[in-house]
Q: What sequence folds into this?
């Protein structure tokens, strides 16, 4: 799929955001993404395999992530690593900016977080 | 097993990936399976197998939902509706709609739910047996570290030549020298007279080493367990009560600890009560008593009576322990070349306790589980066919919904929800059926099925039933769902869609389902027929004795009432005399171990003089050793069981304590030692040759062989010694336990009553056990095979009926669909015979295709039952020809009814109906 316009992808769907956040740390394989998201959200968000790969597929189609080769001896061959693309980082930053603006807006109206 | 379960779930998952679009599947399928594996492993580590089943369920369900969304869902970048609301609404409406539709056609609902409920129920019931017997962990602490140990004879190289339990010195040596085991317990089981109560009882007991409960990791519920020191000869006798015995005979008294009971007439102090959850490894045991072994002066090396259970040291694997033991055996070989005991050719071996207890049941239970799974598949095929037929009836309605704007995704989802609602209702009914089924299975089950009390419907079984129901719903729901997705709107409104492409494809699909059903039914019928034939062959086996009119009972004489061997001998003589005096009695006698009921111990014998045949250990000059089952019998025993005398004589009243020691051997032992004949007059001794104190005995007779352990066993060497000489000459090996046998011309019930009266007259306080006819003894010995073949028979009968229903349903549908065509043909001059013929021919072709597929599959897979067969080839020609013929007959019968209906078609009516 062609390169997408950053703004058109916002707001990011929850699963997209979480996978991009995982990959912002570095390349991961599918199961590691699943674990990372689960740990980071204290088990609130669990990406079951079909949902996980459904989302990975969309993100790849949008060129926000890409599959990469990672050198490692002990992993089994089926494991494919994914990394965030430059476009992906830009979209993630744009989303974070959008969220920040939203939070500032809410704060200015006197809404406090719990 | 678990690994296999995981493998099976993985294949299901891989198959279910089909719901995803092809491009998705080929890009990510392998990775998804890999994640599936990792999630499974993680779930097992965190929450055990129940957690794994729940996780699988979630992953299957999630895959299905994503599949539907990917195929039929909104396109990408479509404005997103609040998803939760959408799904919830959809679900609620669809479920409501599905229930309303089922209510409107109660007949359809009843047939579908009954079919599936039987399938799910039977699967759940069998699975609960598999779960209770094989899957569930043994109720001991860290059960994976427990091993059962025994000794083996290796005839040459690694060839297996029989098993034997340990003697005291072997047990003590191995316990102290093996470093792989933390501790090893020794025990033996038997029966005991329990006195000192209101009513004396004969109960099953185990005599155990002091560390027995520590090895298993079981703590008594009341009091304490045995301690070192209580196992010394001079210590007082102590016992630990089982929970059931404590409740039954001691009224659950909490002050029972410290009380004195009489075990075989000797006082013993109760020191504890076992918890209700305790299960003795392999068999019911009601009381544990200490087994006394003097480590300084143990019993002889040739007296093998101790079963062993060991606990491996933490971190030591079974393999490492085996390697260490092999080294130990060869070290013993070189350190004690002359010692009769464990060696490289006669090693101590072991396996996990679980494997030893239930490993032999695994093949039969897994085959039953597979068979019942096939029944469920057939049920699914039937229901799928009915669902497609129903969906066709509802085409107009679906068409209207489509015209009003329902997307294909919505239509498909609706059909799937429909199926899932049916699956859930059927699952609930099936679970109820399973609860009943489990009770019946526990009754039907083999008498010696271990852990039979642990069979119940628990969380794991519930999870299984739920997954089976959901998988079923998806399985039979997917076909109609795709049929709905391919609906042709314009054809729907015309109402005549049978000649459209979609209609033809559906018909092909329905035919394929019926063909598949018939194929599976043939596979099941072949399997069942093989097992039933094998069971018939087994019950036809000549055990070497006659059962007609024979009754048996067990008793054991107390040392308190019968202190001396003479008292025991007098009791036996009197009993035989009294019973033989009864009207109709032909012969009566006693034996140590009744064939197919008990197994006599194996004793090492020293044979003197030349031996031409094979012996178990090296010849030393004119002496060699040989192992044989050691039997003690009175003269009347052989006559009571009609065991033929081949040579010499049987025992007579002159073979008493003081007379020349004599022995009788069986044909197998004679053939093995003296293949050219001449066994009579040969001399032998009980025990190995070093320091053998036993008197020499002379062989006076050779008896016909008797199957001792089971009907499918080989004959084994046996040695018989007269009861009175056994008591006098080989005291340590004599036993006060006996099975009494009597043959009468009257019916067994009368005989049992009469014999019982004589026993009462002799000793009113003597407890008697296992009073039964010899026919029942034989029947019980094959109860496990009866169980398997009976269940297989039931499953294949269900498969046959379901197959017939499938053919019937399809043919009825075809006839209804072709009413106009049939009317046309009849108007053009076809007679009723032609019409019936054409319908039956169509059914015949489907049956032929199905049966051929089934035969091929059965031919390729029948090897899985090989281990359960006795004297029947896995490719038995009668079975392979008979099974499809039987199925064809049933199928044609099922087709005949709709064919008749077709022949009744009135051409005029047929055209008017359009």
A:
């Amino acid at each position: 799929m062609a390169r997408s316009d950053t703004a058109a992808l916002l707001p990011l769907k929850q699963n997209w955001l979480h996978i991009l956040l995982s990959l912002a740390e570095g390349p991961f394989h599918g199961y590691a993404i699943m674990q990372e998201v689960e740990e980071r959200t204290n088990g609130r968000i669990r990406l079951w395999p079909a949902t996980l790969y459904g989302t990975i597929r969309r993100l790849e189609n949008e060129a926000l992530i890409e599959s990469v080769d990672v050198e490692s001896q002990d992993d089994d061959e089926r494991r494919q690593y994914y990394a965030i693309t430059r476009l992906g980082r830009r979209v993630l930053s744009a989303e974070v900016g959008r969220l920040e603006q939203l939070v500032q807006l809410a704060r200015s109206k006197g809404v406090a977080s719990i | 097993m678990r690994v296999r379960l995981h493998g099976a779930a993985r294949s299901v998952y891989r198959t279910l990936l089909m719901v995803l679009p092809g491009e998705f599947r080929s890009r990510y399928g392998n990775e998804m399976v890999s994640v599936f594996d990792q999630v499974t492993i993680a779930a097992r580590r965190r929450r055990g197998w129940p957690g794994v089943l729940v996780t699988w369920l979630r992953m299957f369900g999630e895959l299905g939902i994503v599949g539907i969304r990917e195929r039929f869902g909104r396109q990408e970048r479509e404005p997103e509706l609040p998803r939760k609301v959408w799904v919830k609404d959809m679900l609620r409406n669809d479920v409501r709609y599905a229930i309303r539709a089922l209510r409107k056609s109660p007949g359809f609902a009843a047939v579908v739910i009954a079919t599936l409920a039987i399938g799910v129920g039977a699967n759940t019931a069998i699975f609960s047996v598999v779960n209770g017997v094989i899957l569930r962990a043994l109720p001991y602490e860290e059960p994976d570290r427990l091993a059962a140990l025994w000794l083996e004879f290796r005839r040459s190289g690694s060839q297996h030549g029989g098993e034997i339990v340990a003697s005291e010195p072997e047990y003590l040596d191995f316990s102290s020298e093996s470093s792989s085991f933390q501790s090893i317990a020794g025990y033996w089981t038997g029966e005991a007279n329990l006195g000192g109560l209101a009513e004396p009882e004969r109960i099953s007991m185990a005599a155990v080493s002091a560390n027995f409960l520590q090895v298993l990791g079981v703590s008594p519920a009341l009091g304490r367990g045995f301690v070192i020191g209580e196992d010394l000869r001079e210590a007082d006798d102590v016992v630990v009560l089982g929970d059931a015995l404590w409740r039954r005979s001691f009224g659950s008294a909490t002050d029972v600890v410290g009380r004195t009971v009489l075990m075989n007439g000797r006082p013993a102090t109760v020191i504890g009560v076992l918890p209700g959850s305790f299960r003795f490894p392999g068999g019911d045991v009601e009381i544990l008593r200490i087994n006394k072994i003097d480590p300084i002066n143990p019993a002889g090396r040739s007296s093998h009576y101790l079963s062993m259970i060991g606990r491996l040291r933490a971190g030591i694997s079974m393999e490492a322990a085996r390697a260490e033991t092999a080294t130990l055996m060869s070290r013993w070989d070189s350190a004690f070349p002359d010692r009769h005991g464990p060696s490289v050719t006669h090693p101590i071996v072991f396996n996990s306790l679980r494997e030893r207890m239930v490993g032999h049941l695994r093949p039969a239970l897994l085959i039953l589980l597979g068979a019942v799974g096939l029944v469920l598949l057939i049920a699914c095929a039937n229901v799928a066919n009915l669902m497609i037929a129903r969906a066709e009836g509802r085409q107009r309605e679906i068409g209207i919904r489509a015209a009003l704007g329902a997307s294909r995704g919505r239509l498909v989802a609706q059909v799937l929800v429909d199926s899932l609602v049916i699956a859930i209702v059927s699952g609930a009914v099936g679970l109820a059926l399973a609860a009943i089924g489990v009770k019946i299975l526990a009754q039907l089950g083999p008498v010696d099925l271990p852990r039979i009390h642990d069979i119940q419907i628990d969380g794991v079984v519930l999870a299984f039933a739920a997954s089976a129901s959901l998988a079923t719903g998806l399985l039979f729901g997917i076909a109609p769902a795709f049929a709905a997705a391919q609906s042709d709107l314009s054809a729907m409104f015309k109402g005549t869609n049978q000649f459209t492409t979609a209609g033809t494809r559906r018909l092909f699909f329905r035919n394929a389902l019926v063909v598949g059903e018939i194929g599976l039914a043939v596979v099941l019928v072949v399997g069942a027929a093989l097992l039933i034939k094998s069971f018939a062959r087994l019950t036809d086996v000549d055990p070497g004795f006659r059962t007609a009119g024979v009754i048996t009972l067990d008793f054991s004489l107390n040392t308190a009432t019968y202190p001396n061997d003479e008292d025991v001998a007098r009791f036996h003589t009197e009993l035989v005399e009294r019973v033989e005096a009864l009207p109709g009695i032909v012969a009566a006698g006693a034996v140590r171990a009744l064939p197919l009921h008990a197994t006599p111990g194996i004793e090492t014998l020293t044979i003197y003089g030349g031996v031409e045949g094979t012996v178990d250990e090296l010849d030393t000059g004119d002496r060699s050793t040989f192992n044989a089952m050691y039997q003690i019998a009175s003269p009347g025993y052989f006559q009571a069981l009609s065991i033929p005398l081949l040579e010499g004589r049987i025992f007579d009243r002159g073979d008493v304590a003081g007379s020349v020691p004599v022995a009788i051997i069986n044909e197998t032992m004679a053939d093995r030692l003296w293949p050219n004949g001449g066994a009579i007059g040969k001399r032998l001794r009980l025990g190995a040759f070093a320091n053998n104190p036993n008197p020499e005995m002379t062989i006076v007779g050779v008896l016909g062989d008797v199957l001792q352990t089971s009907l499918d066993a080989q004959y084994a060497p046996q040695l018989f010694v007269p009861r009175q000489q056994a008591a006098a000459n080989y005291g340590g090996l004599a036993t006060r336990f006996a099975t009494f046998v009597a043959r009468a011309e009257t019916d067994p019930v009368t005989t049992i009553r009469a014999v019982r009266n004589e026993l009462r007259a002799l000793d009113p306080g003597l407890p008697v056990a296992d009073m039964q006819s010899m026919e029942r003894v034989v029947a019980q010995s094959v109860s496990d095979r009866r169980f398997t073949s009976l269940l297989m028979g039931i499953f294949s009968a269900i498969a046959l009926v379901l197959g017939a229903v499938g053919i019937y349903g399809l043919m009825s549908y075809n006839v209804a669909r072709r009413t106009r065509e049939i009317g046309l043909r009849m108007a053009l001059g076809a007679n009723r015979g032609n019409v019936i013929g054409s319908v039956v021919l169509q059914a015949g072709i489907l049956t032929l295709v199905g049966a051929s597929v089934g035969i091929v599959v059965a031919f390729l897979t029948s090897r899985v039952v090989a281990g359960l067969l006795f004297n029947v080839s896995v490719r038995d020609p009668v079975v392979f020809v008979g099974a499809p013929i039987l199925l064809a007959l049933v199928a044609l019968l099922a087709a005949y009814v709709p064919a008749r209906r077709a022949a009744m078609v009135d051409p005029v009516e047929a055209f008017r109906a359009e």
